[in-house]
Specification:
Helix content is 31%, strand content 17%. It is an alpha/beta fold. The structure holds 3-acetylpyridine adenine dinucleotide. The site of 3-acetylpyridine adenine dinucleotide has 26 residues, from helix 5.
Length: 546
C-alpha cells in the first residue's frame, strides 16, 4: 500500500496507518475500499464478530429494511449492483447481512478489518497532527486520520428501569439479539418498546409465544410494508433501469424515491382539509391506515396533521376488534414527527388471543422484579423480556469513546454542552483530522446509504487533495461550524419534529439529558450534495488546512 505523502512517525509498539476507520458496517466497508483505491493504508476496527454494522447486530425476529433493497444498497459498483440478486422488495436482515459479507469478499476487504475490537480512546497529537487510537484489546494504532463509520443507530439505549438486572428470566435486546436465534415457544414474553424494532418483532414473537404482553409507552404510526418477494423477471427489469432509479433517488429530497418509510406517506394529491367526511372515510376504507395520511397537507398544516391523526385512529379501530386496545394503539402526538414504521400485520396481531397490549400511558413501569414487570396498573409474570427500546442516535456511539481533540477537549463534553455541533456533519471544530460519516448535522437519518456513499467519496477526495497539496491537517473552523449548526437547527424550527408532544430520537428526546435539537440536516439531499461539492471546489471553504 502506498503511504500518505507525509507519513506519521511510529511510536514503539504502535501500528501505523494513514487512516483508522471505526466500524465495518455499510460506511466502513466502502470507506476502506475507496481509501485503498486512492492509495491510502487503512485499518478497520470493528466491535462485532462480523461485518455488517447495524445489520450484524440487529438480528431480532422480523428484522428487515424499511427502504427498497434496490435503493438500500451500494451504487458505487455497477458490477455488484448487477450481480447481487435480491429476493425481496424490502430485504430482510439475513439478506442484507449476506449482501454486505458478499461485498467484503468481492472487494477483498477482510484482510484490513480487525473484528472483536472496540475502540476505547482516541487522542489527537497536536505535535504531529496524528491520532492515537486505543482498543479494548490493549492495542494502539497511530493514524493521520480517523474516519468514524460508527453508524447513526448503533449505540443502544439501556432503559433506566429499576430492577432490570434482577430479572431471573431471559433478557434480550433487539439490537443484540443472539446470532443463533431464540425460540419463544411456550414462553410468556414481554416486549418493551413499539418503535420500528418492536413493531417488526411483535407479530413474529406473537406467532411463537405462549403469551405476549406488549408494553407500549407511545403508540407508533405504522404502515403496511410493501415487502414481498420479487416476481420472476421483476428484479431484472429494475436492474435494466438502475441508472435512472439511482438518479431519481439522488434527486429526491429524502433519497428514497420509491417505497421507503417516508415514501409510504407521500402519496396524496388532495388536501385533507378540503376532503369531505365521505372522502376521508373512503380513503381509510380502501387503504387502511395509509388512507389516513395520503393527503397533500398533512405534513405542512397542523390542523390537517391533527385530522390525519384522528383518521389514523379510526382506521386502526376498523382492524383491531377490542375497542380499548384499538384506542390505546392510536398515537397522541403529531404524524411524521417520529420516523414512520413499516410493518407486516402489526395491528392484526392484537386480535390474537395470546397478545395483550399494556398501555403504559394508563400506568407506567415501576420496576422489573425477578419474575416479571410491575406496573402501576398491575404485575405481569414473564419468562422473557425483549427490550426494543432504541438508540442514542447519531452521537451516542462517539460519545461512548473518550475522544480527546485539540487541548485535550473531550468530544462528549463538547456535544453535551454545545449540542451536537458539526460542520456539514463531517467534522467538529477542535477535532482535526477526524471525520464522521453520517454525523450529526448531515441528512443521514433521512437516507443512510446515499449519504454514506457521498461522505466516503467526499472524504477520500479531500484526503487526496491534502496529500497532493502537502497538508497534513484539516479542521472545521468554529465560524463555519456555527453557521452550519445554525442552518441545521433553524431548519427544524416550527416543524412537527420539535412539537412538545413529540419525543423522538431525531431530537434526542429518548436519551435523558440530551439536548433537544433536530440532529440531522433537513434541507434535502440535492441541496446538501451541492453545498458539499461547492465547499470542496472552493478549496474546502470553512476548513482550516495546515
Ligand atoms: O427505537 P425507537 P427502534 N419504558 O426509539 C420505547 C431504525 N430501524 O429500535 O416512544 C417503556 O424508535 C419507546 O417509547 P417512547 C429506524 O430508523 C429501522 O424501534 O420513547 N418504553 C419506543 O416505543 C427507527 O426509527 C428498521 O415513548 C420505552 C421504543 O422503546 C430507529 O432504528 C428497523 C422505554 C423505542 O423506539 C429506532 O427504532 C428497526 C422505557 N423505559 C430500526 N424506553 C427498519 O429498517 C424506550 N421505550 C425497518
Amino acid at each position: 500500500m502506498t503511504p500518505a505523502a507525509q507519513p506519521v512517525a511510529a511510536g514503539a509498539g504502535r501500528s501505523l496507518f494513514d487512516v483508522v476507520i471505526i466500524g465495518a458496517g455499510m460506511a466502513g466497508l466502502y470507506a476502506l475500499h475507496k481509501l485503498r483505491a486512492f492509495g491510502f493504508s487503512a485499518r478497520v476496527l470493528e466491535k462485532g464478530g462480523g461485518v455488517g454494522g447495524v445489520w450484524f447486530w440487529n438480528r431480532y425476529p422480523g428484522a428487515r429494511c424499511d427502504a427498497e433493497s434496490i435503493e438500500y444498497s451500494y451504487s458505487f459498483s455497477k458490477e455488484i449492483q448487477e450481480e447481487w440478486v435480491w429476493t425481496d422488495v424490502m430485504a430482510t436482515q439475513p439478506e442484507i447481512e449476506a449482501y454486505l459479507n458478499h461485498v467484503a469478499d468481492r472487494l477483498d476487504l477482510r484482510r484490513d478489518i480487525q473484528l472483536h475490537t472496540t475502540v476505547t480512546t482516541m487522542t489527537f497529537n497536536e505535535a504531529d497532527a496524528s491520532w492515537t487510537v486505543e482498543t479494548d484489546r490493549g492495542e494502539r494504532f497511530t493514524a493521520r486520520y480517523v474516519i468514524a463509520a460508527t453508524g447513526v443507530l448503533s449505540a443502544a439505549v439501556e432503559p433506566d428501569i429499576a430492577g432490570s438486572g434482577a430479572f431471573q428470566g431471559v433478557s434480550l435486546h433487539t439490537s443484540r439479539f443472539p446470532k443463533e436465534g431464540f425460540d419463544f415457544s411456550g414462553k410468556r414474553v414481554g416486549v418493551i418498546g413499539t418503535g420500528s424494532s418492536g413493531v417488526q418483532s411483535i407479530p413474529v414473537v406473537a406467532a411463537q409465544a405462549a403469551h405476549l404482553h406488549v408494553f407500549q409507552r407511545s403508540a407508533a404510526y405504522t404502515f403496511p410494508s410493501p415487502a414481498r418477494p420479487f416476481a420472476p423477471g421483476e428484479l431484472d427489469d429494475l436492474k435494466a433501469r438502475y441508472d435512472e432509479i439511482r438518479a431519481e433517488q439522488r434527486a429526491s429530497r429524502f433519497g428514497a424515491a420509491r417505497l421507503g418509510a417516508f415514501a409510504v406517506m407521500h402519496t396524496g394529491m388532495t388536501p385533507l382539509k378540503a376532503a369531505s367526511r365521505e372522502e376521508q372515510l373512503r380513503a381509510i376504507e380502501e387503504r387502511g391506515v395509509g388512507g389516513a395520511v395520503a393527503w397533500s397537507d398533512t405534513f405542512t398544516d397542523k390542523e390537517a396533521n391533527h385530522a390525519a391523526r384522528q383518521l389514523y385512529g379510526e382506521a386502526i379501530a376498523r382492524v383491531v376488534k377490542d375497542p380499548a386496545t384499538a384506542a390505546s394503539l392510536a398515537p397522541t402526538y403529531p404524524l411524521a414527527c417520529k420516523r414512520p414504521v413499516v410493518d407486516l400485520g402489526y395491528f392484526q396481531t392484537f386480535n390474537r388471543d395470546n397478545v395483550t397490549l399494556v398501555d403504559l400511558r394508563k400506568g407506567g413501569i415501576e420496576r422489573i422484579t425477578p419474575t416479571g414487570i410491575q406496573t402501576t396498573q398491575g404485575f405481569f409474570e414473564l419468562d422473557v423480556i425483549l427490550y426494543a427500546t432504541g438508540f442514542d442516535a447519531m452521537t451516542g456511539a462517539l460519545k461512548r469513546i473518550d475522544i480527546r481533540g485539540r487541548g485535550g477537549a473531550l468530544l462528549r463534553d463538547v456535544w453535551d454542552t454545545e449540542g451536537p455541533v458539526s460542520y456539514l456533519g463531517l467534522q467538529t471544530a477542535g477535532f482535526p483530522n477526524l471525520f464522521t460519516i453520517t454525523g450529526p448535522g448531515s441528512p443521514s437519518v433521512m437516507t443512510v446509504n446515499l449519504v454514506i456513499e457521498d461522505h466516503v467519496e467526499w472524504i477520500a477526495t479531500c484526503l487526496a487533495y491534502l496529500r497532493d497539496h502537502g497538508h497534513r491537517a484539516i479542521e472545521a473552523t468554529p465560524e463555519a461550524q456555527a453557521a452550519w449548526t445554525e442552518q441545521t437547527w433553524s431548519a427544524a424550527e416550527g416543524t412537527v419534529f420539535l412539537e412538545p408532544s413529540c419525543n423522538s430520537w431525531y431530537i434526542g428526546a429518548n436519551v435523558p439529558g440530551k439536548k433537544r435539537v433536530f440532529l440531522a440536516y433537513l434541507g434535502g439531499i440535492p441541496t446538501y450534495r451541492q453545498q458539499c461539492a461547492e465547499i470542496a471546489v472552493a478549496g474546502y471553504r470553512g476548513f482550516r488546512l495546515g
